[in-house]
Amino acid sequence: MKIKPVTVKLILMLFLEFAVWGAYLTSLGRYLGNIGLGSQIKWFFAMQGIVSIFMPTLMGIVADRKMEAQKVLSMCHGFAGLFMAGAGFYCMTAGANVQFAPLFILYSISVAFFMPTIALVNSVSYNAMAKEGMDPVKEFPPIRVFGTVGFICSMLLTNFLKVNGTAMQDSYTQLISSGILSLVLCGYALTMPSCPINKTGEKQSFVEAFGLKAFSLFKDPQFAIFFIFSMLLGASLQITNGYANTFLGSFAADPALADTFAVKNSNALISISQASETLCILLIPFCMKKFGIKKVMLISMFAWVLRFGLFGLGNPAWPGVLLFVLSCIVYGMAFDFFNISGSLYVEQNAAEDIRSSAQGLFMMMTNGFGATIGTLAAGAVVDACDVFNTPANWPQAWYIFAGYALVVGILFMILFKDPQKKAAATK
C-alpha cells in the first residue's frame, strides 16, 4: 500500500504536537517538588484546565474567520514555545532561588497558547485529508496514534537524557526542551496545506458564535447527568500527571529504594500509561458492541479507582513495583473508555445542528471545569496529607482519590440510564 506524502506530513505534525506536551507534563511536578514549590503544583496543572475553558474557542473563531488554521497553529506554537523556553531560562538563571510568580506567569502564557493547538492540529489534519480525498474516519486514527508515540518518545527522552549530570525530569531543561519542540512546530505548521476561512460575512449571535447553544442540552435530564459526571470524572484527569512522578521521586529519601528503577526512571515507568492508552483505543469498538456505552463508561470510572488505589498500595521494590505497572496499564481504560465513548454518546444523541458545539461542551466540562476543579481539590488533599514533609503519607492521598472515583462510579451507575435500553423501552 502506497503511503501518500500528506500522510507522512501529518504523522510528523502530530508527533511533534504531543512531543511538546510529553516533554514536561508528567515530570513538571517532580521538578517543582525539587525546588520547593511542591505545594504549588496544583496551580500549574489547574492552569491547563482554566485556559481550556476559553482559549480553544477564541483561537477557533480566529481560525474560522480571520486567519488560516495552519497559520493560527503556527502563531500559537510560536508564543507557546517562546514563553515555555523563557520559563526554562528563568529557572536556569535563578538557580536555587526560583520564585513562584515569574515562573508561573511565563508557564501560564505558554499553556494558554498551547492548549488550543490540540484542536487546531485536528482541523489542519482534516483539511489536508479532505484535499487528498482521504476518509478521516478510517484514515485519521492510525495517524493520530503517532501523536501518542511522540508523547512517549518525549517522556523517555526527558527520563533518560542528562544535562550537566542531571536527568531532565529533575531539571528545568524539560521546559527548554518543550519550548524548542514548539518552535520547530511553529515553522513546520506553515508547510501544511492552506485551510479555508469563512468570509461569507454572515452574522451570528453571541450564543451561536461561542457555541453556547449546546447548553440547551442541560434541559434533557440524561444529558444534564452526563455532563455533570463528565465534569466529576474530568476531575481525575490531571491528578497523576501532576503528582505521580513527584510521588515516585519521594521514595529517593529511602536509601534502600533510591536506586530502584521506578524511582530513578519514573517517567519511563509512567510512559506505560500512554502505551496502554494506544492499545486500549483498539479495544473500544469490541467493548462498545459487547457491553454498550454505559458499561464502557463504568469500566472507565472503576479503572480510575484501580489507577489511584494501586499507587497507594505499591512501592518501588519487587514485587510492589508490579502494582505501579498495573496502575499504568489500567490507565488506558480509565482515560480512553470515557473520553471516546462519551464523545460517541454526544455524537449519537445531540441534534445535528449543535453536534460540534456539544462536543466542545463535553471537552469544556472534562478538560476545562473538571480538570481545574479536580486539580485544585487534589492539591488541597495533598497539602492536607502533608506529603512533602511526611512522604509516608502519600498512600492516604491516593486512597482518598480512589474513594472519590468509586463514589462517582456508583452514583453514575445508579443515575445514568443506558441509552440503548432507554431507546428499546420507547419502541
Report on this model:
- With 427 residues, the chain is an all-alpha fold.
- It has two domains: 1-195, MFS general substrate transporter like domains (Growth Hormone, Chain: A, Up-down Bundle); 209-427, MFS general substrate transporter like domains (Growth Hormone, Chain: A, Up-down Bundle), CATH 1.20.1250.
- Helices cover 75% and strands 1% of the residues.
- It has helices spanning 5-22, 28-34, 41-65, 69-94, 100-131, 136-160, 173-188, 206-209, 221-234, 239-250, 261-264, 266-291, 293-313, 321-349, 355-384, 394-415, 419-426, and strands spanning 162-163, 166-167.
- Strands 1-2 form a two-stranded antiparallel ribbon.
- A hairpin with a 2-residue loop joins β1 (162-163) and β2.
- α2 (28-34) crosses α10 (239-250), α9 (221-234) packs across α15 and α13 (293-313) runs antiparallel to α16.
- The longest helix has 32 residues, at 100-131.
- The chain starts with a helix and ends with a helix.
**Structural class designation:** mainly alpha
Mean pLDDT: 87
Name the helicity range: over 70%
CATH superfamily of the largest domain: MFS general substrate transporter like domains
In CATH's first tier, which class of the largest domain applies? Answer: Mainly Alpha
Most strands sheet = 2 strands, antiparallel
> Which fold name corresponds to the CATH topology of the largest domain?
Growth Hormone, Chain: A
Strand proportion: under 5%
| Number of self-contained structural domains | 2
Secondary-structure element order, as H and E? HHHHHHEEHHHHHHHHHHH
